[in-house]
C-alpha cells in the first residue's frame, strides 16, 4: 500500500514526540514513587518515634502517681487510634497522617494485639499473608533489633478481598515493653506518584493531538505543493508547456523546487521555439533543394540523351574508320607492289645503263 509523505511525516514526528515524553514520564514517575516511598517510610519511623516519646512522657505521670498504668496505657491508645466503639473497634485517628489506610498499632512480644483498630485483644503471632510470611513475628524481631521495616500483604480495611502490599515500621518501647508499629499500604505512598503519571499521560496525549493537528495542516501544505509540482513535471514530460509558471510563496526547499520547475519550463519553451524556427528554415531549404534536384534531374536526362546521340555518332564513326582502315591496308599493299615494281624497273634500268656503257 502506498505510504504518502504526509503519513510518514506525521507517524515519524509523533513517534519522536511520544517516545521521549513517555520515557521522561515513566522516569519521573519512578523517581517520584521512589521518593514518596522513602518519604512514607520516614513518616512511619517518625510516627513510631513520636509514639515512644509520648509513652515516655505519659509514663512520667505514672511515676509521679498522677495516672495509673492502665489509665496511661489507655490514654496512649486513644491518642494513636481513638476511643473504642460498642463492638470493641477503635477509629483510626485522622490527625496521624500515615496515608488513607495507614494507622499505628501495638503488640506485645507474644503477638497479642494491645492496641489495634480491628483486632484488639486477639493474638496475631501466627498470622501469615498469602505468601506465608508470618509478619507479626518479623515485626517483633525487627523491633527487638532496634527497629526496622517489614513488608507483607494484607487486605484493605474496607475490602477484605483486595490484597495489597503493606509496609510496617516496628520498634520496641523501653518503658512498657510494647512493640510500636506504624503501618500503611504501599498504594498510599504511591498515590501522588500515580497522580503524576496520570497527569503526564494526559499531557502527552494532549501534546500528541495538538502536534498531530499542526502536522496535518503543515504536511497538507507541503504535500499539496509537491503533488502540484509532480503534476507539472508530468505535463512537461508530455511536452505540455501551456500552463502558467508556478507561484513561489516560500524560500524553503519547496520554493527552490518551484523555481527550478519554472526555469526548466521557460528554457524548454525557448528551446522548442528555436527548434521550431530551425525546422521551418530546414523545410524552406529542403524545398529549395528539392527544386534544385528536379532541375539537376532534368539536366541529367538531357545529358543522357545527348550522350546517347554521341554514342550513336561514335559508333558510326567507328564503322567508317574501320572501312577506312581496310582501304588504307589495300592502299599500303598497292604501294608495296608499286615499290616492288619500281625496284624491278630500277634493276632493269641499271642493266640498260650497263649495257649502254658497254655499248
Question: What order do the SSEs take from the amino end to the carboxyl end, as H and E?
Answer: HHEEHEEEHH
Q: What structural category characterises the helix and strand content?
A: alpha+beta
Largest sheet: 5 strands, antiparallel
Radius of gyration: 65 Å
Quick overview of this protein structure:
This protein is α+β, with helices and mostly antiparallel strands.
Protein described:
The chain has 359 residues and is of the alpha+beta class. It has 5 helices and 5 strands; from the N terminus they run ααββαβββαα. It has a 5-stranded antiparallel sheet with strand order 2-1-5-4-3. β1 and β2 form a beta hairpin. It is rod-shaped and about 225 Å long.
Protein traits:
359 residues, five-stranded antiparallel sheet, 5 helices, alpha+beta
Write the layout of secondary structure elements.
Blueprint: H1 5-64, H2 69-80, E1 103-107, E2 113-115, H3 135-144, E3 148-156, E4 159-172, E5 179-185, H4 186-237, H5 253-358
Antiparallel strand pairs: 1-2, 1-5, 3-4, 4-5
Helix pairs in contact: 1-2, 1-4, 4-5
Amino acid at each position: 500500500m502506498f505510504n504518502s509523505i504526509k503519513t510518514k511525516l506525521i507517524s515519524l514526528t509523533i513517534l519522536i514526540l511520544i517516545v521521549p515524553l513517555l520515557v521522561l514520564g515513566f522516569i519521573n514517575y519512578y523517581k517520584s514513587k521512589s521518593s514518596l516511598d522513602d518519604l512514607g517510610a520516614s513518616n512511619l519511623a517518625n510516627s513510631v518515634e513520636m509514639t515512644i516519646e509520648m509513652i515516655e512522657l505519659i509514663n512520667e505521670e505514672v511515676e509521679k502517681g498522677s495516672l495509673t498504668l492502665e489509665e496511661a496505657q489507655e490514654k496512649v491508645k486513644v491518642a494513636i487510634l481513638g476511643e473504642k466503639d460498642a463492638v470493641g473497634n477503635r477509629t483510626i485517628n485522622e490527625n496521624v497522617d500515615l496515608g488513607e489506610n495507614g494507622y499505628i498499632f501495638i503488640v506485645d512480644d507474644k503477638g497479642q494485639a494491645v492496641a489495634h483498630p480491628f483486632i484488639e485483644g486477639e493474638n496475631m503471632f501466627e498470622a501469615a499473608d498469602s505468601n506465608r510470611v508470618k509478619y507479626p513475628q518479623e515485626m517483633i524481631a525487627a523491633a527487638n533489633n532496634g527497629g526496622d521495616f517489614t513488608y507483607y500483604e494484607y487486605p484493605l480495611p474496607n475490602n477484605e478481598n483486595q490484597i495489597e502490599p503493606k509496609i510496617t515500621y516496628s520498634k520496641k518501647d523501653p518503658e512498657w515493653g510494647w512493640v510500636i508499629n506504624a503501618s500503611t499500604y504501599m498504594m498510599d505512598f504511591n498515590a501522588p506518584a500515580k497522580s503524576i503519571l496520570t497527569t503526564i499521560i494526559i499531557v502527552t496525549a494532549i501534546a500528541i493531538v495538538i502536534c498531530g493537528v499542526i502536522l496535518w495542516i503543515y504536511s497538507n501544505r507541503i504535500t499539496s505543493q509537491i503533488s502540484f509540482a509532480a503534476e507539472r513535471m508530468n505535463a512537461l514530460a508530455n511536452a505540455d508547456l501551456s500552463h502558467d509558471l508556478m507561484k513561489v510563496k516560500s524560500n524553503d526547499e519547496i520554493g527552490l523546487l518551484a523555481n527550478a520547475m519554472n526555469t526548466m519550463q521557460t528554457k524548454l519553451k525557448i528551446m522548442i521555439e528555436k527548434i521550431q524556427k530551425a525546422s521551418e528554415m530546414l523545410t524552406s531549404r529542403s524545398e529549395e533543394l528539392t527544386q534544385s534536384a528536379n532541375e539537376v534531374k532534368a539536366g541529367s536526362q538531357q545529358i543522357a540523351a545527348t550522350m546517347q546521340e554521341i554514342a550513336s555518332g561514335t559508333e558510326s564513326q567507328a564503322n567508317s574508320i574501320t572501312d577506312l582502315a581496310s582501304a588504307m591496308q589495300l592502299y599500303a599493299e598497292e604501294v608495296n607492289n608499286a615499290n616492288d615494281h619500281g625496284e624491278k624497273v630500277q634493276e632493269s634500268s641499271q642493266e640498260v645503263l650497263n649495257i649502254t656503257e658497254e655499248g
